[in-house]
Amino acid sequence: MTEPIDDDLGPDESSEALIAVHWREEGYYPPPASFVAQANAADPAILDAFTEDKYPECFNAYADLLDWYKPWHTTLDTSNAPFWKWFVGGELNASYNCVDRHLADKANKAALIWIPEPESEAHAAITYRELYNRVNEVAALLRDFAGLKTGDRVTLHMPMVPELPIVMLACARLGVIHSQVFAGFSGTAAGHRIADSGSNVLITMDGYYRSGDLLDHKIKTDEAVEAAAKEGQTVDKVLVFRRYPGKYSAQTPMVDGRDFFVDELLKDYKGALVEPVSLPAEAPLFLMYTSGTTGRPKGCQHSTGGYLSYVAGTSKYYQDIHPDDTYWCMADIGWITGHSYIVYGPLALGTTSVIYEGTPNYPDPARPWREAVKLGVNIFHTSPTSIRMLRKVGPDEPAKFDYHFKHMTTVGEPIEPQVWRWYYESIGKGEAVIVDTWWQTETGGFLGSTLPGIHAMKPGSCGPAALGIFPVILDEDGNEVPQGSGKAGNICIRNPWPGVFQTIWGQPDRFVSTYFAKYNKDPKSTDWHDWPYFAGDGAVQAADGYFRILGRVDDVINVAGHRLGTKELESAALTVPEVAEAAAVPVVDDIRGRAVEMYVSLKPGYAATPEVEGKVRDAIVTDIGKIARPKNIWIVPDMPKTRSGKIMRRVIAAASNFTDTGDITTLANPEVVEKIRQQVQSTKVAKGEVPRELSETELAEIKHFGSE
Ligand code: PRX
Fold first, then answer.
1. 563 C-alpha to center of ligand 1: Å?
2. Residue 7 confidence (pLDDT)
């Protein structure tokens, strides 16, 4: 057990340091003996196999989990730093590794089990044999009908249905680079991503169930095609899966010559077989778009060999997946978690991966537990937002159901220790080990986590670094913040690892400047030691080596574990003709971690009306999607600004969160601050919306939000 950290700091210490020392150290929870007895990694010798002196060759063990057509000759090539190349000379195919190679001994075992949201509909279990048949048929269609070939990009805008992994694996079979856009994103957001990736084929679905409604998803297609066209990208073909094959569930008309029903086309490809293409390890497997500090989303490009090795290795040791497990990750495949830990990692290991179409608490908060019993789920994976929600709406439900998890994951946001304990005691029934996995879209797989059969858990901390990952916490000047000092700083990874993304699609300079330039002293160096990866998160490392992630240090708001860039939100608001200026800030939310609040000021001559507010809300939902819908929109007389005209987001964030606005004497217009505070807080109080007292970490984020 660690001692609480000494909090005797001098008066000149930064506020981050104070936050860190005020954090109460939590006690440890040892992994349950029943878990350890069967764990893939229970012998601490594995830690010795991944020490720095064994790096980078230690990662050959991950690559050895896959079947290669041609072995690699160089584990890590750093000659074009920081564009790292892994397993150079090797050739493989991801579809072969996730499907074909399991036919020998698992042909009749379920690869995927799909749970439709309506409980009246039967589960669909897809065996590895059937997955093989369907992936081949779709691959033949993509090649022969859609004309797609190795290296082309294709955009998917698919909901949580088995057709999504089938299409991904069909693309991988051909070496076509898939770019799946979360179905909850708007058509316009999909259109930007189509244009950025240069896709001329869009694959989508007519509709899907969400909270009891069969949504018209096809309606987003015309918007997407139009938005892409505005940026100069033509979509020639739209392939539309139907939720009920043979029956069209959307109201939106199909466009003749452009839109095609996949179930009709597939009739021509019955029994077709497509040889998996042998691809170099560094061939791109997919793009996954994420938000950053500028408006243009970043298409994170992931490799075939490095990525697949890393997700297979981490699925084995951190998710503890065995082939006979039934594994359920409730994330959406539209995010990186779903790519790595619903599709590629679990299927590479030949296990059964469960896919659920709808919302976790539909039609009632016992839904996940009923399904867990029915399917015999023994590994469960979700986010703090879902845990908080299930705790709020159905705290007593898990105990009523006779399921037994051996392993559970939390991912995507910091988890409060009290929420962690509820997850452990109630959902896990005190029997399941928990991993709190810290990582990012860019990193392909886990960076920080306990090794579940070896390390004790500590609520609120992700744990030590993952195997072969060597983090360091640096201050703004690049000095190392020592372990156990109680001080926070920027968490960086000193070394490349196989899962790291290869570049930002079409923006290689941004790749270097965003992630590597901050602490690089010699841009010509080909030595990886000179290129720490800047993760963009604040963190503190306790004396025991465990990391606690404090949250983003850039202009990104983490809503329910999903990243929204302030610039994206603000540019959407600025499309409203009446709006002169816009600023997005986070507000602490008990379920979703953070929500967005939007501040706008209007051009002269316009009045603040509910209509303008509605237009701003609609613009954001249209441009990004419902996930970004602001909790409140405040039309203010003016924005607090520095003398150079920069909007002070931290000042308005303080108004939204009822915290101290801090020093405002350097503002050009300090008088506006009080007006805004009055306007926002009196309305909130009248609506009964006063936030609770904030934790130290929440307070720190609000205090530092946005650059000055
Ligand atoms: O701030 C960290 C937070 O989520 C960010 C990455 O978001 P995204 O790329 O959408 O990927 C989410 C799923 C991997 C990180 O920069 N984050 C992720 N996991 C954790 C976390 N914060 C605290 N604890 C975690 N376990």
1. 8
2. 31
Give the span between the Cα atoms of 422 and 505, in whole angstroms: 41
Q: Percent helix, strand and coil across the chain, each rounded to 5?
A: 35, 25, 45
How many angstroms separate the Cα of 359 from the Cα of each of 51, 160, 331, 527, 687? 41, 11, 10, 47, 27
d(CA 423, CA 400): 15
Phi, psi dihedral angles at 523 (to 5 degrees): -60, -15
Going by alpha carbons, the residue nearest to atom 4 of ligand 1 is 412
Q: Which two tokens stand for residue 426?
A: 């109630």
The DSSP result for 2-61, as a single string, is PPPPP----TTS-HHHHHHHHSPPPPPBPPPHHHHHH-S--STHHHHHTSGGGTTGGGHH
First to last CA, the chain: 41
Cβ-contact 219, 240 below 8 angstroms: no
Q: Which two tokens stand for residue 140?
A: 């033949």
> Residue 531: which of 545, 514, 546 has the closest Cα?
514
Q: Calculate how far, in angstroms, residue 439's C-alpha sits from the geometric centre of ligand 1.
A: 5
In this structure, which residue's CA is closest to atom 11 in ligand 1? 440
Residue 23 is predicted with a pLDDT of 60
Give which of 708, 355, 702 is closest to 558, Cα–Cα: 702
Q: How far is the CA of 413 from the centre of ligand 1 (A)?
A: 5
Reduced 3-state DSSP string for 550-583: EEECCCEEEECCEEEEHHHHHHHHCCCCCEEEEE
Ligand 1 binding pocket mutation candidate from 291, 409, 439 (most atoms within 8 A of CB): 439
Query: Which of 457, 549, 594, 698 gets mutated to test ligand 1 (max ligand atoms within 8 A of its CB)?
Result: 549
- CB distance 384 to 421 below 8 Å: no
Q: Which atom of ligand 1 is nearest the CA belonging to 551?
A: 1
Identity of the residue numbered 590: D
Q: In Å, how far are 378, 620, 665, 675, 695 from 681, measured between CA atoms?
A: 46, 23, 21, 10, 19
Task: Give the total residue count for the chain.
Answer: 708
278's CB contacts (< 8 A; 6+ apart) are: 69, 70, 91, 92, 93
Tell how far the Cα of 442 is from the centroid of ligand 1, in angstroms.
10
Name the residue at shortest CA distance from atom 25 of ligand 1.
Answer: 438
User: Strand, coil or helix: what is 504?
Assistant: strand
Q: Strand, coil or helix: what is 327?
A: strand
Q: How many A from CA of 412 to the centre of ligand 1?
A: 4
- AA identity, residue 701: E
Rounded to the nearest angstrom, the distance between the alpha carbon of 240 and the centre of ligand 1 is 32
pTM, to two decimals:
0.95
Integer Cα distance of 587 and 572 in angstroms: 19
What tokens were used for 545?
């080596």
Render 213-246 in DSSP notation, one character per residue.
EEEE-THHHHHHHHHHHHTT----EEEEE-SBTT
Collapsing DSSP to helix, strand or coil, 606 comes out as coil
Q: Which residue has the tokens 């006063």?
A: 690
Distance CA 438, CA 455 (A): 16
Instruction: Please identify every stretch of the chain with a pLDDT value under 50, giving residue numbers as ranges.
Output: 1-15, 17-18, 21, 708
User: What spacing in Å lies between the alpha carbon of 295 and ligand 1's midpoint?
Assistant: 20
Three-state SS for 487? coil
Q: Using alpha carbons, select from 3, 49, 60 the residue that is nearest to residue 26.
A: 3
Give ligand 1 pocket residues (Cβ under 6 A): 290, 336-337, 411-414, 436-441, 462, 536-537, 549, 551-552, 558, 561-563
Give the pLDDT score at 8: 31
**C-alpha angle 158/161/166, rounded to 5°?**
80
